């Protein structure tokens, strides 16, 4: 039986984690994991298409969205993956499929590598890949007092509209709702302090050797016009992951859940039945 969306907060690893549970008892569970500078909002067009047939959990990774902007949490990919894994276990979810967009794809791969026994499959939507750890000079800079103001200034200079123009191919999709939705989390200065720690702690993406060791079946969907994570990254991931399927979308940028939700939901549904 399907129920209405419920929002929740759980304390995991000492951090308050916000998530949305679109409960659908007896159905396959999907855990939606957003990307860098994003939140559960990025799945707003995908969720309505999936919630009829799946038990959905959409998570705000800290420090983004409505999750806590902790000054103590170690913002490594390993820790973020552990948060997702612990949430899955606390909710007693069996054999979930992780759906990760951009950085969320990398978190999904970390989770699959850490606990392949818990994760049934992984869906990677323009997933980040092969990024190195931050440059030592940048890491050093994060220890400078008020470094967070530099991050705030940089993001403000870029502007939400400019960032959105960079991640979607068809700019006519950008409306006021989208601008406000992606801007809202950055109205709290605490996020910039937490992002300083994320820059310091992020250990880099999984290596080719690590990727080749992952046996979890994966589905990769890419926008051919992706300027953030070019399609060549997706093709390389496809080659390194043992059991993967790859699809690309013409006239589509980085924000595939927003740009082509019907295609993405159809491919996810088909992948779940394999």
Automatic annotation (TrEMBL):
GO terms for molecular function: hydrolase activity. It holds the Pfam family Abhydrolase_1. It comes from the Bacteria. Residues 30-261 form the AB hydrolase-1 domain. Gene3D superfamilies: alpha/beta hydrolase. Keywords: Hydrolase. InterPro entries: AB_hydrolase_1, AB_hydrolase_fold, Epox_hydrolase-like. The keyword NAD does not apply. This is Hydrolase.
């Amino acid at each position: 039986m399907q129920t209405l969306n419920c929002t929740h907060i759980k304390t995991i690893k000492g951090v308050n984690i916000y998530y949305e549970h679109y409960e659908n008892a007896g159905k396959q569970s999907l855990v939606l994991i957003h990307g860098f500078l994003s939140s559960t909002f990025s799945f707003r067009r995908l969720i309505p298409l999936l919630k009829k047939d799946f038990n959905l959990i959409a998570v705000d990774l800290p420090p983004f969205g409505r999750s806590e902007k902790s000054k103590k949490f170690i913002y490594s990919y390993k820790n973020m993956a552990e948060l997702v894994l612990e949430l899955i276990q606390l909710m007693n979810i069996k054999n979930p499929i992780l759906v990760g967009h951009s950085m969320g794809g990398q978190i999904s791969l970390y989770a699959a590598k850490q606990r392949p026994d818990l994760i049934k499959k992984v869906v990677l939507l323009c997933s980040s890949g092969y990024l190195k750890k931050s440059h030592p000079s940048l890491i050093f800079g994060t220890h400078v007092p008020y470094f967070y103001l530099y991050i705030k200034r940089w993001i403000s200079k870029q502007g939400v509209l400019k960032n959105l123009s960079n991640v979607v191919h068809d700019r006519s999709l950008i409306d006021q709702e989208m601008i406000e939705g992606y801007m809202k989390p950055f109205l709290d200065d605490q996020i910039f302090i937490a992002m300083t720690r994320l820059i310091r702690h992020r250990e880099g993406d999984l290596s080719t050797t690590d990727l080749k060791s992952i046996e979890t079946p994966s589905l990769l969907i890419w926008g051919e016009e992706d300027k953030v994570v070019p399609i060549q990254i997706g093709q390389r991931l496809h080659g390194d992951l043992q059991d993967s399927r790859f699809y690309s979308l013409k006239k589509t940028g980085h924000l595939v859940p927003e740009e082509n939700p019907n295609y993405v939901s159809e491919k996810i549904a088909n992948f779940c039945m394999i």
